[in-house]
From TrEMBL:
Family matches, as Gene3D superfamilies: alpha/beta hydrolase
PANTHER family hit by this protein: HYDROLASE, PUTATIVE (AFU_ORTHOLOGUE AFUA_2G14860)-RELATED, MONOACYLGLYCEROL LIPASE
Species this chain originates from: Amycolatopsis regifaucium
InterPro entries: AB_hydrolase_1, AB_hydrolase_fold, AB_hydrolase_sf
Xref: Pfam families: Abhydrolase_6 (PF12697)
SUPFAM superfamilies per UniProt: alpha/beta-Hydrolases
Protein name: Alpha/beta hydrolase
Residues annotated as domain AB hydrolase-1: 25-261
Keyword Hydrolase: yes
Length: 273
């Protein structure tokens, strides 16, 4: 399921695609990821659901213009515009990492209605960010100028650290690819520099407004965002359920794919029945 369609928004090119039939399910990726992480799960669900994938501006196959902001606020505006473009009314939303904050802001601030929300190891409330993320946040301009071979090694080490079980070489290469080259390298540091925790503080202050089915999955070995943050997030949302995913790190998709697929189908079957 490659991204064959594009949506033009505020000078940006947003890559997206859909397949299948049935209730609408929209997948949101995080950073430094892309929709590639969700593709096998979307394909597996496409027999019963209409599944939508997209790359946020500045990520994956979407445009990476240096003049375009990529903060949480802009991404939420882009997501709201994309949902309108698709003509979706109350889709089921599935998110990971940064996609949690984006989807929450789209719902809570832009008042876009969802039918349900599933969040896996999300950046949604403070604090967030791995030690390397915080280092880059402090020195984005310096690190953006390192030689390409050093940058590639940094990116691959950073991405690999998100997995508890370790990544296959081809998976690591696919995840790193969008961040390499003349366009990808500066884009990698630019999206980290755009991180602003105030958006997460706003999300946390508004959690009690959420009135829809919410499920949270969290890898028990997530060293980027500890399980305690997932527990706090679940406690702040009325009726939310939290399911720990054993022996999985932040990249729960690759550490525990069978559990992820099972939980996704079980959840979507329940909220659409």
């Amino acid at each position: 399921m490659d991204l064959r369609e594009t949506f033009s928004w505020e000078g940006r090119r947003i890559a997206w695609d859909k397949t299948g039939s049935g209730p609408a399910v929209v997948f949101c990726h995080g950073t430094p990821w892309s929709s590639w992480l969700w593709r096998p799960f979307a394909e597996a669900l496409s027999g019963d659901f209409t599944v939508y994938l997209w790359d946020m501006p500045g990520y994956g196959q979407s445009s990476k213009d240096a003049g375009h902001p990529v903060d949480f606020g802009v991404q939420a505006e882009a997501f709201a515009a994309l949902l309108t473009h698709w003509g979706l009314d109350r889709p089921h939303v599935v998110t990971h990492d940064y996609g949690g904050a984006v989807s929450l802001r789209t719902h809570l601030v832009h008042e876009v209605a969802y039918a349900s929300l599933l969040m896996a190891d999300v950046v949604a409330i403070p604090p967030a960010g791995s030690p390397f993320f915080r280092l880059v946040k402090q020195h984005p301009d310096v690190l953006a100028q390192v030689p390409p071979y050093i940058h590639e090694a940094l990116v691959k080490a950073y991405i690999g650290n998100a997995s508890h079980r370790g990544l296959h070489e081809d998976d690591l290469a696919r995840l790193a690819a969008p961040w390499l080259g003349e366009e990808g390298q500066p884009a990698f540091y630019r999206q980290i520099a755009a991180y602003d925790e105030r958006y997460l503080e706003e999300n946390e202050a508004l959690l009690d407004r959420i009135d829809l089915p919410v499920k949270i999955l969290w890898g028990t070995e997530d060293t980027w965002i500890p399980p305690a943050t997932g527990e706090r997030l679940a406690a702040g949302i009325r009726g939310a359920s939290l399911t720990p995913v054993e022996r999985a790190g932040h990249l729960v998709h690759l550490d525990a794919p069978v559990v992820m697929a099972t939980e996704l189908r079980s959840w979507l079957t329940r909220v659409t029945s």
